Amino acid sequence: MEELKKDGYTVVDALTRLTVQKGLTYFVRAAAKALEKYEKIVFVLSGNGEQRDELIELAADLGISDKMIFTGFVRGKQWRDIYCLIDVFVMSSVSEPFGLTALEAAHHDTALLISRQSGVGEVLNNIMRFDYWDVNKLADEIVNIAESPALQKSLKKNVKNEYARISWQDAARKCLKLYKGALV
């Protein structure tokens, strides 16, 4: 991936379990549509799960196997290295109560595209949002970020700054305030 970045490719990753809940068939379909518009993108699926073979087959059927890398499960140094290499993190979840991987991506200076069905979108504002099923919107946003270094830089900087201000203590105080208000 490092060589592809040097050649000007934008690296787009979904670091997740490869399961139906994560909406990855939509991600792969959006990847194919994005590549029709802009070729200098490489897509990565980092993780493992029961949908792995189906997603590999879908990428082949869509003719994008040469631009879709399946890393398998990553942890430790590999996990950190992946986050440091990617430009755009995609969370295409059909249903995601929160989504800590989006916060991890924000911490690692990455632009974020998050489905509206993911809870982390309630915490982060400096992200781009899409409905998990809207492959055209996701493809367009990926291309917009890939074609605009200024947009990519702005998204990365703003979400990293926003992440740095997030406090679990502040979140806990808000929850306690809501609970106390409900008791009255």
From TrEMBL:
InterPro entries: Glyco_trans_1, Glycosyltransferase_grp1. Residues 5-161 form the Glycosyl transferase family domain. SUPFAM superfamilies: UDP-Glycosyltransferase/glycogen phosphorylase. It comes from the Bacteria. GO terms for molecular function: glycosyltransferase activity. Pfam families: Glycos_transf_1 (PF00534). PANTHER family: SULFOQUINOVOSYL TRANSFERASE SQD2. This is Glycosyltransferase family 4 protein. It comes from Candidatus Minimicrobia naudis.
